[in-house]
Amino acid sequence: MPGILSELRVLELTHRPSGAYCAKLLADQGADTIKVEPPGWGDQARHEPPFIDEVPHPDRGTSYLAFNTNKRGITLDVEQAEGRELFERLAATADIILESYSPGRLAELGLGYERLSQSNPGLILVSITYFGQDGPYANYQGDDLVAQAMGGYLYAVTGSASQPPMGTALQQMEITAARNGAVAVMAALLRREQSAEGTHIDVSTMEAAVSTPSGLIHPYTYTGRNPHRGGSDGNVMDGMHLPTLDGEVTLTTAGTGGRPMEAWAEFLEEPGLLDSRFASRSGRMEHWEELHGLVAPKLAQWTNLDLMRESMARGLVVGLVQTPQQVVESPHLEERGFFVEMDHASAGPLKYPGSGFFIDGENAMASDRPAPRLGEHNVEILCGELGLTVRDLGLLRAARVI
Amino acid sequence: MAEKGILDGVRVLTLEQVHALPWGTGFLADLGADVIRVESPDHLQDRKAGPFPGGTAGEEWWNEAGNMVYYGARNKRSLCMAVTDPRGKEVFLKLVEKADIVTDNFRPGTMQRFGFDHDSLSAINPRIITLSSTAYGYTGPWRRAGSRARTVDAACGLSYLTGYEGGPSVRASNNYMDHSVGDNVAYALLLALYQRNKTGKGMRVDLTMLETGVSAVGPAILEAQRGITRDRLGCAHWWKAPHNVYPAGGDDRWIVIVVSSDTEWESLKEAMGSPQWAEGTKFGTALARWHNRHELDELIANWTSQHDDLELAQRLQGLGIAAGSAMTAQDLVNDSHLQERDYMWEFSNPQAPAVGPRLFAGRPYRDPGNPMSIETVAGLGQDNEAILAELAGLSPAEIGELESEGVVFGAPRPDEPRP
Predict the structure, then answer these.
(1) pLDDT tens sequence across B364-413
(2) Do A357 and B208 touch (CB under 8 A)?
(3) Closest by Cβ to B188, choosing from A131, A195, A357
(4) Radius of gyration (Cα) for chain B, nearest Å?
(5) What's residue A215's pLDDT?
(6) CB A170 to CB B258 under 8 A?
(7) What per-residue confidence (pLDDT) applies to A110?
(8) Residues of chain A neighbouring B68 (CB-CB closer than 8 A)
(9) CA–CA min distance A218, chain B (Å)
(10) Burial call A381-399: b when 16+ CB within 10 Å, e when fewer
(11) What phi, psi does A350 have (nearest 5°)?
(12) Cβ-contact B385, B398 below 8 angstroms
């Protein structure tokens, strides 16, 4: 089936992973998404390691490739009048524009919401920045780590109580901001169907971080205590990672009918777990080293996939701590058809993650095209749609507009 | 439900527990949908999970938990009814006739056992959208596996990549996966509504936590296919240095500093008072700083530990350096930026007068076209009568019968253990 958003056009004029990922979420549902990059250098993510086959090349950055699926790409310098004019013409055809300039900069360029919505009243403009469009931090510099810190996530969530704060890998606050942006866009599209009105949406990555843990702000306002990192410290049965033959696993006391030690003693064939010291959660925490000494050698006899299968059969709940390699090779994901394969001109064929949902049994992830090479669709879009000649393109290129 | 939101007229029946799905349907409730939380009298864990004022559950604990305001029942309605009872099932199926969306987060198989699988519901209402939010999905060898957000944090690859530099893997969070799934649920449901506006047809959505998690670690998935491994780096970075969290003055106070260019490094040196150690080749280039980052981090830590983190972050930001305090919840509640943006929402739940007004994290985006706020929070079974009368068409006598015969509940059973 054609993507749900296939009748829509998205322009992406963003500089950080949050914007790229938000546009990707829309592109993966079929929206005709045009990534607008500065000429010459392009998206900064093109230049950030690691690179496919370890070759530093602007089409091979793995974050770039992962966050720009199903988009077309053009280069355009909107700092120049010529570039702005072309952008404006494209903007008139767009349903959604994503941008991540410092607040006010887009308006300074003459491309603010007021201006663009005059000729395109249904336009949905999404500004996706670290701190939002107003307030004392609006012009602060950010990145994912700064957002984790200022959003309270760093202090409270991932690390160990006895060590410094430590964050979540792989820019998850950027991704969370992007997901929030995509929800906001869908709500705005539904509103537009009724009212024909567009809107200007303000997404903040810092606020995405604050909203993310279920237990940050209101646990404090209810109890007066600051939530603090270290939730899995010394928690053998409900938090720690424990080695197996070919990886790691994390156990839970779920699915044991309220008798976790009996259930695990039977499963692991380790009667030592029935010791009364381990009967309560607090006892297990107090004697965690002894408990670890009993559990770890038993788990070390299992392979990950065997452990998953057998524990599942007994109704026990475990989590395999999978490496990315194990995820790629997962028989479960293979059977579900989760990954979509796309062949990139420079990076070659690769399996890309799907959207996380299937609709009527179909993977709801477009596989139209891998991430665009820099300026790959300049001719197709600037000549094919805006009517420039190839000669015009040459002039614009010489003037570094494209 | 919120007044006159964009989803006015959209009705959602949700058989939901814990965090992920309630977080997702909470967006629809905020946007004006009539989200009916169908709660089981036998599974009141969500209402027991707190937090409670002062950490102690009160007399009417089932309406006092903070999580119910933050996502469980905010802007939703509550019908507390045993759908496992044949009479409860009959009522549920009547409600399906007047619903647009049915969501659940049971393991695959449970909805079918209830007779609530997509095909059965679609036969009653062909426009119905059903969404099941599960750990591993309706197909594949792991479909019957139980889960916690933490176990899927592990299975999707995120935990493996997270950890202190040189240290073991740790779970990123006990509930980050719940939250991502909730966001993805909201996205998928709004997409489904958008699609149904075009086709008039319902659809079936099979949404999983594992796959939502994998979709968030895409770069590592591509790298794995070409033999590239990612070391755990804690708060350090693949190519930036300094990029870390540093101790500040005071107990358990910390500041993050990120330098992305030579210009920013020059500014940081100046802020540090141009110390002798910062001159010379050891830290002179981006490459040198990265290779010597452990020594660099120690030297910076010596400096930051003499400063107040909030003041220092502000000063560094004034010089164009990305820096920020590792904020506590208390810092955030008092934060001038969030206050000026009206980010936090104060809410006083009339269903739980003992709790009084409390602050909650707000929505992390603003759309003047679709404003959101907490307007109501459903007490347990608060809307039983309205829903049964208006939507299921039951008479007061029939409703009274369901109440007296233990199908519908306005409060926990008298012998329900207190949290």
Answers:
(1) 999 999 999 999 999 999 999 999 999 999 999 999 999 999 999 999 99
(2) yes
(3) A357
(4) 26
(5) 82
(6) no
(7) 95
(8) none
(9) 5
(10) bbeeeeebeeeebeebeee
(11) -145, 150
(12) no
Burial A185-198 (b: 16+ CB within 10 A, else e): bbbbbbbbeeeeeb
Lowest mean pLDDT among A206-220, A320-334, B295-309: A206-220
Q: Residue B3: what pLDDT?
A: 60
Please check whether residue A264 is in contact with residue A307, taking contact to mean a CB–CB distance below 8 angstroms: no
Q: Quick check: A320 and B322 CB within 8 A?
A: no
Neighbours of B238 (CB within 10 A): 13
Q: Which of B299, B282, B286 is nearest to B239 (CA)?
A: B286
Query: Would the CB atoms of A202 and B366 count as touching at under 8 Å?
Result: yes
Measure CA A174 to chain center: 6
pLDDT band at A54 (very low <50, low <70, confident <90, very high): confident
Q: Is the pTM of this model over 0.95?
A: yes
A188-247 residue pLDDT tens? 999 999 999 999 999 999 999 999 877 899 999 999 999 999 988 999 999 999 999 999
**What residues in B contact A3, CB-CB < 8 Å?**
none
Query: Quick one: average pLDDT of A359-382?
Result: 96
Instruction: List the structure tokens of A11.
Output: 């322009």
Burial A156-183 (b: 16+ CB within 10 A, else e): bbbbbeeebbbbbbbbbbbbbbbbbbbb
Contact in structure between B377 and B26 (CB atoms under 8 Å): no
Is the predicted pLDDT of residue B2 greater than 60, yes or no?
no
Interface test with A, best of B67, B71, B256 (most A CBs within 10 A): B256
Structural contact between residues B267 and B321, judged by C-beta atoms closer than 8 angstroms: yes
Residue of A50, A131, A190 with shortest CB distance to B223? A50
Contacts of B221 in chain A (CB under 8 A): 66, 324, 327-328, 351-353
Own/partner long-range contacts of A233-240 (Cβ < 8 Å, ≥24 apart): A233/A160, A233/A161, A233/A162, A234/A285, A234/A288, A235/A284, A235/A285, A235/A288, A236/A284, A236/A288, A236/A291, A236/A292, A236/A295, A237/A264, A237/A284, A237/A291, A237/A295, A238/A281, A239/B150, A239/B171, A239/B174, A240/A292
- Give the gap in angstroms from C-alpha B53 to the nearest C-alpha of chain A: 5
Distance from CA of A313 to the nearest CA of B (A): 8
Best of B10, B132, B142, B150 to mutate (most A CBs within 10 Å, chain A): B142
Shortest CA distance from A143: residue in chain B: B322
pLDDT for B81-119, tens place per residue?
999 999 999 999 999 999 999 999 999 999 999 999 999
Distance in angstroms (rounded) separating the CA atoms of residues A313 and B35: 35
